[in-house]
Structures are given as C-alpha cells and as structure tokens.
Here is the input.
Amino acid sequence: MTAEAIYAEGLVKRFGETTALAGVDLSVPTGSVLGLLGPNGAGKTTAVRILSTLIAPDAGRARVAGHDVVRDAHRVRQVIGLTGQYASVDEKLTGLENLFLIGRLLGKSRADARSRARSLLTRFRLDDAATRATKTYSGGMRRRLDLAASLVGQPRILYLDEPTTGLDPRARLELWALIRELVDSGTTVLLTTQYLDEADALADDIAVIDHGRVIASGSPEALKARVGSRTLVVRPENPAHLDAVAAVVTELAGAAPEVEGGRVSAAAVGTDVLPAVVRRLDRDGIAVSELVLRGASLDDVFLALTGQPTVPTETDDEP
Amino acid sequence: MNPERGTDSGANAVRAGGASSDGGARSDADRSNAARADETAAPPAPELPARVPLAAALQQTLALAWRSLVQIRHNPWELGDYSIQPVLFLVLFLYVFGGAVAGSTDDYLAFMLPGMIVMNMLFVTVYVGHGLNTDLTRGFFDRLRALPIARWSPLAGRITADLVKQAWSIVLLLGLGIILGFRVGTSPLHVLAMFALLLAFALSFSWITVLIGVIARDPEHVQLFGFTALFPVTFVSNVFVPVETMPAWLQPLVNANPVSILSDAARGLLVGGAVLQPALWSLAWALALTAVFAPLSVFALRRRLSG
Here is the structure.
C-alpha cells in the first residue's frame, strides 16, 4: 500500500503540433483531494485521461494506487472511477439500465447489479427518473447520474473532470455536497475545475495548471498567502460619488485605486484602512451600498501567477 | 448486509449534506452522516488480476449486446428502420416492378425475395458503424474504456446485438414474403443454412461499417456514407433484375459483385438450384473482406482513441 494514491512524474502529451502537457508532476496522498485548477485548454483533461488509462503519455510515467497507468492499465481501471464530460452514460438507456449495465460489466450478478443501481439512484435522488431515458434528464440530474455511474464499482480513487461546469448554482451546491460526502468516506479525489471557488471549497491541495505546466501548487491558504494582500472594495450608492470615494481611498490607502463597474477597489491595503475609510465617508456624508475588505481570492492568485485573469468561459457539454 | 438499509442512510446523508452545504465549512452532522453512508468506503483490495479472464470478457460482451438491444425499447423508431423500411421496399418493388420485370408478381417474388433479404442485411450492418460512432462521439466509449473490461468487448457486444437484429429482419422479410405468396422450394435445413451464410457475411461486412463508424465525424455522416456507398453496390447486382437484361459491358461487373453471388446462394438455398459454388464464393468474399477491413478498422480505432 502506497501513501500516494496518484503519482505522476514528467507527463508529456502532444497532439500533432499542440503540446497539451509539457512535463506535469502530480502527487495526491491517499484520502485527500487535489484540485487541478486552470483555464480551458490548460491540459487538465489530458492529465485526467492519462491517469485514467484512456491515453498513454508521450513521456513521463504515472502510478495510480501503485500501478503503472500504461503497463498495468487493467489494474488501474479496477480502482478508479471516472466522471467527465467525455465519459458519459448511454442517453438511450434509463438511469437504472445504465447503472445496471455497469454493475454487470463489473462482474456483479443480476440481483447485485440491480440493488446497487437502485441504492445509488436513491442516494443521488434519481428515484423518480430511474425508468426514464437519460436524454430526458436535466443537466444536474445528468451529472448526478454520471457521478453515480463512476461509483458503481466503489472506486478508491475518483476523477472528477469539471463536474459542475455548466450547472446552475443550486445543482452545483448539491453536487459539492455529494463530493464532500465521498471524500469524508475516504475516497481519494482528483478534481479538475476552472472555478476557483470550487477548488477552494473542495480541495485539500491545489495545483494550478496553465499551458500544460503546473505553475504553482499548495494548500488554498498557502496559495492565497503567496499573493498576500487584502483588497478593499467600496461601492457608493450614488455613482456620482465615485470620484470622491476614489480620492478618499487614494489618500488613505496610499495608492491609486481601480475604478470599474461602479466600484472602487484598492489592492494591498493594511487592516487599519477600512475603519479610516468608514469614518471619512461618514464625515463626508457619502452613502455606500458595498464596503468590504477581502482576503486574496484564488482569482487574484491566478492573476498573480499567470499575468492574466481567469475568464471562466461557459463550455458546452460536448467538447 | 441489507442493501435497503444502506440505501436509506445514504439518502439521508445526501439530504443533510445538501441542506448544510451553502457555506464552505463541513459540519459535524455532515461528517457523521457521511460515515454512515458506507457505500463508497474503499474495501482493502487483495492482489488485483492483471487481465480479464475469457469467461468474464464473454459475459461483458453479452451485457453490452443486451444494452444495444434494450436501446430499441426506448427508441421504437430504430426498429422502424429495419422493419418498416424493408417491408416498404419489398411491397413497392414487388407490385410496381414485378409485372414489368418477370411477367407476374408471383414469379418476381420468387426471384427477388432472396436478393431483397441480402440487400436488407447489408443495410442493417450500417447500424454497427452508426452505433459505434455514437458511442465514440457522445463519450460512452470512454466510459467503457475506463472500466476494467476486455478491450474488445464493446465492439463484440455491438456486433452480437447486430446479429440479433439481422436474424429478426431476415425472419420478417421471409415471413412477409410467404404471406405474399413466396414458396420455399427447399428443406428447413437449407433455410437454416441460408441464415448461417447471411449472418456470416454480415459479420464480415460489418467491419466496413465499423471503419466508417471510426472515421466519420458524427453518426449522421455514418448513415450518409453507408447508404450512399451501399445503394450502387446493391443496385449494380442481380437483386432486382436478371443480369441477362443488362448491357454487355455491365454484366461482368454485376457477376463479380459479391451481392450478386450471395443473392444467387440465397436463391439456391430458398428456391432451389445451384448452391455450392455461390455459397463458397460468398464465404471467400467474407474472408477477404474481414482480412482487409478488420485490421484497418482496429488500426483506425486505435488511432482515433490515442488522439
């Protein structure tokens, strides 16, 4: 038994002229959650496809639960579960039939496959839709079924490739709750996401990936500490007061703030600035509708690391 | 352990988790509920097998064949493709062309039905490529490949299901033909031999549609390619019209067409007449098609999957 559930070293993958992975190292301790964070096209999915034995790397090696993903692919497949937009269910089958089929493929008896399918459908609140073709499912239901499908074999290691992309906020929170529950029961999770709050909410460690390289890694807190700043945001109730507010912030924070979208924001301010700004605005009689001092978000981290902001683009379900 | 009990505690855990998950922190209630939701607790794994035993691979193939067939239940239109369409073809050709080609519809039916069964068999093989392409483009194939199953079982499952569909279409056409006045002039053994010969040929011909299914961008293109290629191949044959009525320059082509040869074999086995020679040539064609297209398909599939 190795302490590392997933271990990858120098993974390289090229598709024609494009280099999808340019030497990626990853390490996920057993029972923990690694968030692989990056924009579209950063190489996240390629990494997951290699680690789930779907494609072979051009260079480098990877071990999952101690098994080499190329030489010992069949053993790797026995310990993993894969949920991604490309690893989908059969749209022409019902939810029950899909899960039953996977149970049968994993060698369960008819009775076992059926009871496992039923219990997963109940657990993922898909009872009512169990006998409907999955093409009629909503986006959130489809993701829950995808996740259920990857759990039929009770995998020790679970890959979640952008599990909530395209979901509405409520369905997203539901899926997060399900993922937390899996993690709490001891499953090791590799999660890819382009949502910084998702990595922050679910992951023990984060690896930031961009252009096929891991450009930073560590705990969410450590990454935020690397940027090490707090941002003051003030939104005057009356947009006409923007200039006045900007002047106040410039004076008290000692730097020219950014004015955008009806808000004034200043980076890297000390903790004493906020009360000072409150007192001054009160004295000047300027009403504000928003006034916060927030710690660095992972957006800030990404901006600091790559020099460009993350713009999470809405992607279609089909790549 | 009673699976229903596990189900209940799991469902409660989900609801509790959902209700308290709006913040970032995990509550203790979440944690203890999750601990009871033992569904996903990883059991300590003994030494895992390094490969799939043959018996398991065959069982996986049957499970996947079941899956292809059960799809039809939710998509009755698909059944129409290989039931209503051949029936329409049979009736239209029989009553529109029968008198002109053979003098009477009864004579034409005896000539045309075996060839019609062959033609329909070829069209049904397109569904192997169509289904494979759907799995490849919609992502179900990747789900299967990430499971610890035999690498060949998804394809074998598809082809097995296709053989069932083939058998169904042959029974349908033969049954309808008999209702319309077709008389089997041979023995039941001959009829069974025709089934076996046609299914063997379908098996080898499927490799061509598998190749199309792997290469095509989407399922619609598979159908377009498949049917566009099959129409000339089946019409430049002796399925509908005796070869003697065609221009001399076309006759060698028609005679060499495996569709003509297989139709001759089917006629021999259903109506009577020469069997051995066309049957052997049909099998030779089947072997040749498999020898060429099976490796090409596997090569193309590997290529597509590695990209």
User: Anything to note?
Assistant: Chain A touches chain B through 65 residues (CB under 8 Å). Residues 312-319 of chain A have pLDDT under 50 and may be disordered.
